[in-house]
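The freezer alarm interrupted the setup, so I double-checked each line after restarting. Inputs confirmed:
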Amino acid sequence: MFKLKKFVIPTMFALLQGACLSSSQAQDSVGLVEKQVFSTPNFATYNGQQIAEVKVGWEAYGELNAAKDNVILITHFFSGNSHAAGRYASSDALPGYWDAIIGPGKAIDTDTYYVISSDTLVNQEPYNPLVTTTGPATINPATGSPYALDFPVVTIRDFVNVQKALLDSLGIEKLHAVVGASMGSLQALDWAAAYPDFVERVISVIGAGAVDPWTIASLQQWANPIIADPNWNQGNYYSGEAPTSGLRQALGMVTLQAMHPQIFNQVYASSSARETAPLHDIRENFTVVNLLNTAAEARTTFADANHLLYLVRANQLFMAGFAENLAAGLSPIRAKTLFLPSANDLLLQPYLAQEAHRTLQELGKESYYEEIEGPWGHLNGVYMLEQKSALIEEFLSSQ
Amino acid sequence: MFKLKKFVIPTMFALLQGACLSSSQAQDSVGLVEKQVFSTPNFATYNGQQIAEVKVGWEAYGELNAAKDNVILITHFFSGNSHAAGRYASSDALPGYWDAIIGPGKAIDTDTYYVISSDTLVNQEPYNPLVTTTGPATINPATGSPYALDFPVVTIRDFVNVQKALLDSLGIEKLHAVVGASMGSLQALDWAAAYPDFVERVISVIGAGAVDPWTIASLQQWANPIIADPNWNQGNYYSGEAPTSGLRQALGMVTLQAMHPQIFNQVYASSSARETAPLHDIRENFTVVNLLNTAAEARTTFADANHLLYLVRANQLFMAGFAENLAAGLSPIRAKTLFLPSANDLLLQPYLAQEAHRTLQELGKESYYEEIEGPWGHLNGVYMLEQKSALIEEFLSSQ
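Predicted 3D structure, all chains:
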C-alpha cells in the first residue's frame, strides 16, 4: 500500500481546502500574485436570461508575449477558485493548488506561457475575501437585495463565456491550451467545443465529456441537505439565519466523496469500529465523524448554500458542446485533447473520461489518455498531478 | 458493456426493495413459507444493557434432519429481512431475495439442508407486517411507550446472539454453514468468531472483516439527514410527525450507493444532462432525481428512522470477533471461509473482503476468495450470486 510522507497529516485541513501538497521553493515559484477583478455588463446566459453585471476575480502568472499567443487558461474545480499557483503574500502558508505544475521550469512553464485563471460564476465561496464572483448572494441591482433564487440557472457554458469576455478584454484571441481539473475539465472541454478556432489544446484532468444519470444523482446528494434545512427557506435566508447545518452536511459529503478509502483511512486512522463512546450512546459520534464535521464546518466559513446549489446544477447540466448528444457536441473541436483521469476516482470515474476520449477518436480527433495513480481518489487530480509533468510538458509543446 | 435483459427495467422498484431477479419456477421453489416469531426474555446486549423481551421473525426451508446437523443459517442485509427464498402466498409477485440460490437442487440445496433465516434486531422495517423485530419503535414495557433512544445500542454480535438463542430453542447445536450478504456477511463471520465450535463454514458475500474509517463515515451519511430533520426530535417522534423527509433522503442514498453507474445509467436512462426543466428553474429536478425520490419514498412505507440510525450504528461498530484488532477477532475461528465480494462494489469495496481473507490465511485458516461480476455494484451480491452456484455447492459439500 502507498505510504504517505509524515508531513501530510498535519496539513490535512489546509489540503482539503484546496491548497497544494508540494510547497514549492521560492526560486521555482511564480512569485507574488495579484488578484484582479473583471466585470462585464448585460451578460446573456445560456438559458436565455440576463445578468445586469458579472464580476469575477482573476490572476495570471508569466508574461503575455507581444503576439498574445502564449496563453494557457486554467479553469478551476468545484470548491476552488482562480488561485492555481504562487502566493498573494510571502506570508501565505501555502501556494495555489497546482503550484507543483505551474511555474518557471515546471510542467506549465511560466517562462514560456502566460497562465491565466479566473473565479467562476456562482463560486462556492462568495464570502472569501480573495474570491470575486457573481451569483445568488450578489446584490440584484433591480431590487437592492441578493438575487437568491432569482439568479438565473447558469451552466458550464456560461462559465466559459465569462472567461471569453475576460480574454476579449485583454485582446487575447488564441489559447495555447485550456487546462482544468474536475469541474475545470468540463470548462476546458467545452471551451474547445464552443470556440474551436480559439483553442489549440485541452487537458482534461479527472474529467468527463458529459454528466450521466449516476453523476446527476450523486451530485444531488450534496444539494439535498441544503434544501431540507428549514433555514434554507426556498433560498431566502440572506436577512436571517443561513442554512449552515445543511451546508455543513453537504461539504462533509464533498470532502468524503472526493477521497479514496486508501488516503481517507490514513488521514482518519485515529478512528475505529472499536470506539467505546458510540457503543454506549447512540447520540455519540465516532472520531472520524466528529473530525469530518469539524473539517466541513471550517469549509462553511466563506461558502454560500445557494451558490453550492447553483454549482451542483451547473455540473448536472453538463454535456460538452451543449448539443443533442456528446458526439455532436464534440464534433466542432479542433484542439488536441489529453485526458488524465484518476485510476481510483470514486466521484468522476475513469469511464467518463474514456467515453469522451473514445468519442473524440471516433470523430477522427487527436486525443490521448493516461491515468493518474495515487491514494487520493478524485483528489489525485489536484495533489498527484506532478507525476504527469513530462507528459503535460510534451503535450503543451507539441505541434 | 454488460447488457441487461429487457425484463429487468420494469421490475426495478420491486428489485430495489430486495426481491429477487430470477423468478424461480414452481418446481424449483422451496414452496410456501411460513413466517414464525421467536421471543426471548431478558436479553443481555454486548454493551452491557438488557432488553426485557426480544421478539424476531424467522422462517425455514427444507427439513431438519434427526441429528439436527444439516442446518444452514442465512443472515440478512441492511434493508432486508428473513425472507431469503420461497413465497408466503402463491400470489406473491416475487420470491425471497436469494431464491435463485436456495431451493431444491439449487446451490443451497433444500433437499439436503435445513435453511433458516431470521429478522435482525432494529430491522429497518418494523412496520412491515411480514417483519417482526425489536428496536426503538418497540413498546418499552417499563414505560408503555416506544423505547426511542432509550433502546440500547446494539451490535452485529447482538444480532448473532439473538440467532443463537433461536437455534438453542430449536435444539440446534451445529451450523453446517452461515451465509450472508453485506450486513449479513458481518453476522456470518462474527458467528464463526463468537461460536467457533458451532460453525463449520462461512460464506461472506459482499462483506468485510471490520469496518474502516471510510465506511464509518460513509454510513454516517445515511444517518445525517434523519438527525437533521427537525421532526426527528432526538428520536422522540412516535406521538407526532415522523422524520419522513430525512428518512427518504437516507433511503435515496442507500438506493443510489448500492448500485454501480453501469446499472444505474441503464435503469435511469430516461434522464440526461440535456433536460430543459432544470436548465430553466433551479427548483426543478432532473428525471433521475424525481424517480429516485419516488423510489426512496416507497421505501419509507414500512421503515422507521430510529431503526435506521441503530442499523447504521451496528454496522459502524463492526469488527469480527469484537477483539482488539481483526487478527485477534478472527483467531478463534475454526470454520472454513469463502469470500465473494463484488468486483465493482462502491459501498463495501473488495479490499475489505481481501483484508479479512488475507488475515485468516495468515492465521493459518482455510479461506477462499472469488469476485462476483456484474453491472450492479454492491447489489451483485443479491442479484448476480447465481453465477457462483457451483462454487457455493462445492464449498458447502466439502469436508
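Quick read of the result. The longest helix of chain A spans residues 213-228.
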